[in-house]
Specification:
With 324 residues, this protein is an alpha/beta fold. 38% of the residues lie in helices and 16% in strands. Helix 2 packs antiparallel against helix 3 and helix 5 packs antiparallel against helix 7.
Length: 324
């Protein structure tokens, strides 16, 4: 079975708006209709237009469709799965120091809720099987998508080298926060713990990093993110800034910058300046650009060097607590 890029991805049949058993003529007419509807010259969106083209590339010929369907209908003993896998190291050079379990809390929440959704007594041999995931409610798919995003970001951070230290799934205590979880209210994912996905320290500064996959493109408007995948009232940068400030108070450190990391192609450019939030420089970053950004820093974010770097690391080690 072919696994889409994200648990939130539509199948090519969904993109074209036809059932999976549609005949070829129906498929061809749907393709032409969707091209007209999504073409930028007729008021459509470029990302949707490209998605229609990509869907047709997968299932537009009998041979291609057969290959896709063979995967889609794979036997249960060969399931496609978003289960976590051990990451293979691409290099032998020392990696960044890393603490915590990136994506762990989100995966645990997904496991709890997908079993509740399936119902008591349901047999879920692999709750991460792509067929189960794609039939689950969007709120559950969002949890898993964010877990995968956090794991992918952590893998990139690890390649920065020994000069960097990263803490993942860091719990933060905010003034006025009464505890518990409030789905969709905090602006950094559904049913999200009050946490920072990643805290990264290196010569370029100390960064609070959020890994997100909303399943749709996002863009900046007056320093905040907007997009179809966000729920009403979500303020991702404002929320990240609030949590970064809470960490700074607890550890007696100054956070240099804020980074929200999205999948490749999910924003208009690889790196977008989001201005300042609570005095911290902020940027929207596509994941492939993240290592470069963390090495050179963000405009307006103070670098850290020498003895100060050691002191900040020590304070963070003493203050950081992880989501359980």
């Amino acid at each position: 079975m072919l696994v889409p890029d994200s648990p939130l991805s539509d199948s090519p049949y969904e993109v074209l708006g036809v059932p999976a058993d549609a005949d070829h003529d129906t498929l061809r007419r749907a393709h032409r209709r969707r091209l007209r509807e999504t073409h930028p010259d007729t008021g459509g969106r470029a990302d949707e237009f490209h998605a229609v083209q990509a869907a047709w590339d997968l299932i537009g010929t009998p041979e291609g469709r057969a290959r896709y369907d063979r995967g889609r209908l794979a036997h249960a003993d060969e399931p496609a799965s978003w289960a976590p896998r051990a990451r293979e190291r691409r290099e032998t050079r020392p990696q960044a120091r890393s603490y915590g379990h990136p994506g762990g809390w989100m995966r645990q929440r997904y496991l709890e809720l997908v079993r509740e959704w399936a119902g008591r007594g349901a047999d879920l041999d692999d709750p991460f099987d792509a067929r189960i995931v794609q039939s689950a409610p969007r709120e559950l798919r969002l949890l898993l998508a964010d877990a995968i995003a956090e794991e992918a970001t952590a893998a990139q951070i690890a390649e920065l080298g020994i000069a960097y230290t990263a803490w993942h799934d860091v719990i933060v205590e905010q003034r006025g926060f009464s505890g518990g979880f409030a789905p969709g209210e905090d602006g950094l994912g559904p049913a999200s713990a009050t946490k920072l996905d990643h805290v990264v320290l290196g010569p370029s500064g100390l960064f609070a990093v959020a890994s997100q996959d909303w399943g749709a493109p996002v863009k900046l408007k007056r320093g905040e993110l907007i997009g179809e995948g966000l729920t009403h009232g979500e303020t991702p940068f404002a929320t990240l800034a609030q949590r970064a400030k809470a960490l700074g108070r607890a550890a007696r450190v100054r956070v240099s910058g804020l980074l929200i990391v999205v999948p490749d192609g999910a924003s208009p450019e690889g790196v977008l300046d989001a201005g300042k939030h609570r005095g911290m420089a902020a940027a929207l970053v596509q994941r492939p650009r993240l290592p470069h950004v963390l090495r050179i820093g963000v405009l307006g974010a103070p670098a850290i060097g020498g003895q100060e770097l050691f002191e900040v690391r020590t304070r963070l080690q003493e203050a950081v607590r992880f989501v359980e």
